[in-house]
Amino acid sequence: SAVISQKPSRDICQRGTSLTIQCQVDSQVTMMFWYRQQPGQSLTLIATANQGSEATYESGFVIDKFPISRPNLTFSTLTVSNMSPEDSSIYLCSVHTGLAYEQYFGPGTRLTVT
Amino acid sequence: DAKTTQPTSMDCAEGRAANLPCNHSTISGNEYVYWYRQIHSQGPQYIIHGLKNNETNEMASLIITEDRKSSTLILPHATLRDTAVYYCIVRVATGANNLFFGTGTRLTVIP
After folding, report:
1. How far is B101 from chain A (nearest CA, A)?
2. A102 vs B34: CB contact, 8 Å cut-off?
3. How confident is the model at residue A38 (pLDDT cuts 50, 70, 90)?
4. pLDDT tens readout for residues A45-98
5. What's the Cα-to-Cα distance from A44 to each of A34, A38, A85, B62, B86, rounded to whole Å?
């Protein structure tokens, strides 16, 4: 398994500002994933963060809006840029490990944009 | 990745077994079945996975039909803390693949 922590756990931000979310894993992992969960919805994958290369974004998500850093094998950041109320969501960091690539999730960052 | 179908919601009496079904009729030979759950306001939690054999761990049992077109997650003695949304996901187990979540089954354990 993997233990994942995220900072901040929650924040309330004003529209037009940016927030950087940090994700720390207790072991080295090749790939880290960022998900979004809008209120009352299931999880949606934003992007896959690889160490040493550009993140790979899913359809509907762009680097200018959600820049990602992956400086080493245990850490990643996701920035939500130029925020609007529609960005109010829980943002989750995830990694997979194990022989069958079981996936583990951080506790999430609850973002409210006013 | 194959599509899965789950009931929207289920109730289970506390102390009884909770049986959560999942249909994955288009599953291919190299796809695993994974189960996760999400308790309110928490990140999803890995429960169990399997390829074709039944599996059991400290949390649950996974029963996969012989044709692999459906599976059942069994929580043998449900407690109130098992109230959560349960997700059944099928995917190939490679490093390049991540999980795509459907809507899951909302299980409510009733005292």
Report:
1. 6
2. yes
3. very high
4. 999 998 888 899 999 999 999 999 999 999 999 999 999 999 999 999 999 877
5. 9, 9, 18, 25, 16
Peptide bond into B21 cis (omega under 30): no
How do strand A109-113 and strand A10-13 relate by DSSP bridges?
A: parallel
Residues 87-106 of A with CB under 8 A from B: 92, 94, 96, 99-106
Q: What is the dihedral of CA A96, A54, A75, A47, to 10 degrees?
A: -50
The residue length of chain B stands at: 111
CA angle, residues B61, B64, B69, in degrees to nearest 5:
145
AA letter at B96: A
Confidence at residue A102, expressed as pLDDT on a 0 to 100 scale: 80
What is the reported pLDDT for A44?
A: 93
Write out the H or E segment, with its range, that includes residue B11. Answer: strand B9-13
* Residue found by looking up tokens 């130029």 in the block: A82
Count other Cβ atoms within 10 Å, centred on residue B83. 19
